[in-house]
């Protein structure tokens, strides 16, 4: 009975710490509304300019829409990654997180969740609306939303590793992009393929299953890698 009670207390403590970290990071994000809006503004402007720079022809835009939407969503998510741990590093909070009795794994997961909520999720919601500007057929909207829902979560997790590796660098944005971009390519390929298949009327279960597998793998491995990178970065 004592061991069961102790386990319950531990689980409660982990959950309490996780929710406290999420609430704190959401509050910090809400105080920096300009940084919060940057990915969405970039996504909106980039998609708006595509028809002007490529072609306004509906047939051309329909063909290119899945790839364009996914590439721009990837870049929009990447835009906000550099600040994932930087503020905590600069104000000394990161050192407190490293020595805190609270599990660093759940702290990292909380930060990744908040990053996805304020960047990836809004992009996934906005993407089908912007698909109208690229003449994306209605059959591709649901696939676009679902694929981005899974893909942006994976990109936030993978990006956390790159952000942790470059947290101590003053201008690590370029290096961060070089680190995470090769890891984003499989997600991009299967995400755009899912939308393209949906537009053509094909089944997209395989692509979504692969994206789900990427997400499950990233949820297990990415926080562990980010934890090690943060310890190295804090000491550096």
TrEMBL record:
Membrane spanning stretches: 36-54, 60-84, 104-129, 141-167, 174-196, 208-230
UniProt entry keywords in alphabetical sequence: Cell inner membrane, Cell membrane, Cytochrome c-type biogenesis, Membrane, Transmembrane, Transmembrane helix, Transport
Membrane-protein topology: Multi-pass membrane protein
Domain of life per record: Bacteria
One Pfam short name: CcmB
Compartment list: Cell inner membrane
This protein's record includes keyword Transmembrane helix: yes
Database matches in InterPro entries: Cyt_c_biogenesis_CcmB, Cyt_c_CcmB_bac
Keyword Transport: yes
Similarity section: Belongs to the CcmB/CycW/HelB family.
NCBIfam families in alphabetical order: ccmB
Function noted in UniProt: Required for the export of heme to the periplasm for the biogenesis of c-type cytochromes.
PANTHER family: CYTOCHROME C BIOGENESIS B-RELATED, HEME EXPORTER PROTEIN B
The protein, known as: Heme exporter protein B
Protein source organism: Cellvibrio fontiphilus
Lineage: Bacteria, Pseudomonadati, Pseudomonadota, Gammaproteobacteria, Cellvibrionales
């Amino acid at each position: 009975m004592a061991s069961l009670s102790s386990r319950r207390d531990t689980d409660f403590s982990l959950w309490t710490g996780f929710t406290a970290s999420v609430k704190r990071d959401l509050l910090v994000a809400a105080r920096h509304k300009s940084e919060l809006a940057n990915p969405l503004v970039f996504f909106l402007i980039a998609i708006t300019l595509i028809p002007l720079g490529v072609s306004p022809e509906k047939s051309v835009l329909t063909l290119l829409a899945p790839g364009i939407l996914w590439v721009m969503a990837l870049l929009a998510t990447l835009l906000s990654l550099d600040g994932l741990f930087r503020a905590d590093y600069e104000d000394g909070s990161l050192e407190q997180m490293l020595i805190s009795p609270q599990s660093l794994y759940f702290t990292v997961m909380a930060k990744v969740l908040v990053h996805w909520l304020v960047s990836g999720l809004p992009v996934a919601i906005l993407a089908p609306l912007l698909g109208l500007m690229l003449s994306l057929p209605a059959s591709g909207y649901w696939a676009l939303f679902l694929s981005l829902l899974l893909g942006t979560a994976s990109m936030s997790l993978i990006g956390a590793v790159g952000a942790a590796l470059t947290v101590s660098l003053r201008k690590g944005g370029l290096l961060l992009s070089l680190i995470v971009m090769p890891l984003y390519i499989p997600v991009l390929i299967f995400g755009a393929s899912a939308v393209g298949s949906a537009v053509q009327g094909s089944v997209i279960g395989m692509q979504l299953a692969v994206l789900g597998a990427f997400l499950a793998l990233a949820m297990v491995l990415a926080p562990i890698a980010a934890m090690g990178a943060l310890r190295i970065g804090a000491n550096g």
